[in-house]
Amino acid sequence: MSAPEAAAERAARESYGRLVALLAASTGDLALAEDALSEAFVAALTTWPAGGVPHNPEGWLLTVARNRQRDVWRSAAVRRRAWLDDVAGEAGEAGVDDPLRALALDALPDRRLELLFVCAHPAIEEAVRTPLMLQAVLGFDAAHVASAFAVAPATMAQRLVRAKRKIAAARIPFVVPPPETLRDRLLPVLEAVYGCAVLERGAMAGEARHLAVTLAELLGDQPEAWGLAALVTFTAARGASGSGDTAYRPLDEQDPATWDARLVARGHAYLQRAGTGVPGRFQLEAAIAAVHCDRSRTGRTDWGALEVLYRALLAVAPTLGARVAAASVTARLHGPRAGLDLLDALLEEPGLERFQPWWATRAHLLAGAGRPSEAVAAYERAVTLSGDEAVRAHLRRKLRRIGGEQGLPG
């Protein structure tokens, strides 16, 4: 990969959501913001190889995208749309012919929280709110989002397009809602930030933690926001070994000595700030993560505590992912067949055939239950459904091991 391509890829990975939020905030048109930014990336891949990568690639992209927006706004067909804010009012203007003078992204406000709440507006179909945030604000492509929600990619793409049109047509304001309407929109926002932390490792997972903590601090007294901040911080602690090892390892195969003790302590502090009232989904998930992280202190996992916490979580939020994870905990305590019974109880759930964690967990439990042929088939299905190459490599190793032990193809 050339230096210009690498710079563009890094900007897309680390700054896409922030750039889209800045562009959309000035027009109220999310689809236009995405199109303008896409054209800016095309211009970068055309311009940078000859002229060099600018000192501030993100600022260069923002300036070019702003100009593309102006071109559309000035056309007769859309002249009646909301006026564009002057870029100079935010951080000073810069011409695209001088990339070294491009807008300093760090000097501009982070509008992603506002855009997250826009996507959670009651005018947006409830089922598409969190997927829309994952794509538009956090930078995941429609296929990746579709996989996470066990929906066909074409179906998800259509839903996202309709939602973006609704934002523009309804002229939804780009603001954090007032307290009286905040609670109704908070849960899908939390779910989107959580989805970012779950779906990604590396830079985007760090961005998810930043957004979660920023959101909790902004809202001040929302227990679930602090629960989410604790949850993603515990998750970050387990992925912060700093060894440079990019291989995927399930939680029970990780060495607790490599976890970040500072982040673990911070996660506990956030969980305490969530309070002691009736816990919600993210507080319970954070408590589950805290039990896992406690292995770094005790050297063991308290599976009994996890079973109790999952029972409480399923009473509050019986998501497909939580039910699969609970089946895994049950298998630890009562044997793989007990866990398989819980997985089999999900067979009629919509989208299960595309839900990768169900297949991966089922494969592991089938192997433990002495059903290798079925385990191989389940592992093969889990491999095809995984969008992370490190996860696929891990599953292939499991598949080869079972195939080798049983003389089965794998």
Automatic annotation (TrEMBL):
Coiled coil: none annotated. GO terms for biological process: DNA-templated transcription initiation. GO terms for molecular function: DNA-binding transcription factor activity. Transmembrane segments: none annotated. Residues 16-77 form the RNA polymerase sigma-70 region domain. Residues 201-274 form the DUF6596 domain. Pfam families: DUF6596 (PF20239), Sigma70_r2 (PF04542). This is RNA polymerase sigma-70 factor, ECF subfamily. It comes from Microlunatus flavus.
